[in-house]
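Shapes recur. One chain:

:::
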Amino acid sequence: MTRNMRLRGRIETVAAGLCGLLFLVTLVRPDWIEEVFGVDPDQHSGALEWVIVALALGATLTFSLLARGEYRRARRLSTAR
């Protein structure tokens, strides 16, 4: 059971890191969507980029808190033995 918790914590940590990277890239270079995909879904208004920034920040915080809880649970179980 502890191994599953560790795996889950690692997955959540990686997800938090990827979402954090997406947050930073979109914040620093908001036109990456147009460059990568060759489309401009919001016709240069920047609305899509701000939505991505907000969602990525929320996901980063959520995954970080989930990973923190998972690691705390695993540590508590390992010290209880």
